[in-house]
Amino acid sequence: MGIKNFKKQKKSIVLNDLLLNVGSHLGHLTCYWDPKLARFILNRRNKIHLFNIDKSGESLSQALRFISKLSGNVCFVNGNEKFSSISQEAAFRCLQPALTDNWTNGLLINNNLIKTNAIDALFIINGCDDSFIIKESDKLNVPVISINDTDINSHLITYPIFSNDNSLKIQHFVSNLISDVILEKSLYNFAISLKKGG
């Protein structure tokens, strides 16, 4: 195994361990599930589906790589009042826009929200709570990153992160990781601009 592959594998192991520690593998009750997600489910225990943590880690890594290559903003979306502060804090930390109020259908389509904020993608913390925003994003060709539990149909989500979506720990963990990637990208771009200016 080459040094590059070794480092990549090591990162995957660390990420998977972190996901396990926050309970990412715990899906919904087996009676509430989308059969299309069968390949992401490893097993079932006590009537609960368990995600394959390797698949969860891969999906999260893909989403983070996508975000790291974006030139515009990522809008943090959370229409659930109970969890809205998580999205607000993560967005504020990396100076990104956030949508955390209750809304009605047509919010994205009937407003210039996407254009005026130079939004390249939406990060939706819970695809089940905000399903109509996902549908509107699809009509506008705006990519969506979303935590995707075993009961959610992921066909309209560009980068689904296969994980438990009800845990505060998960929501904090994923939101902060995305915030970290955006901050790292901003610092890198700032350093490049300084170098060019110098």
Automatic annotation (TrEMBL):
GO process terms (BP): translation
One Pfam family in the UniProt entry: Ribosomal_S2
Source species, domain of life: Eukaryota
Family matches, as Gene3D superfamilies: Glucose-6-phosphate isomerase like protein, domain 1 (3.40.50.10490)
SUPFAM superfamilies (UniProt xref): Ribosomal protein S2 (SSF52313)
GO function term, MF aspect, one: structural constituent of ribosome
Record's keyword terms, sorted: Mitochondrion, Ribonucleoprotein, Ribosomal protein
Any one GO cellular component localisation term in the record: mitochondrial small ribosomal subunit
HAMAP family referenced in this protein's UniProt entry, alphabetically: Ribosomal_uS2_B
Similarity remark: Belongs to the universal ribosomal protein uS2 family.
Name of this protein: Ribosomal protein S2
Gene from which this protein is expressed: rps2
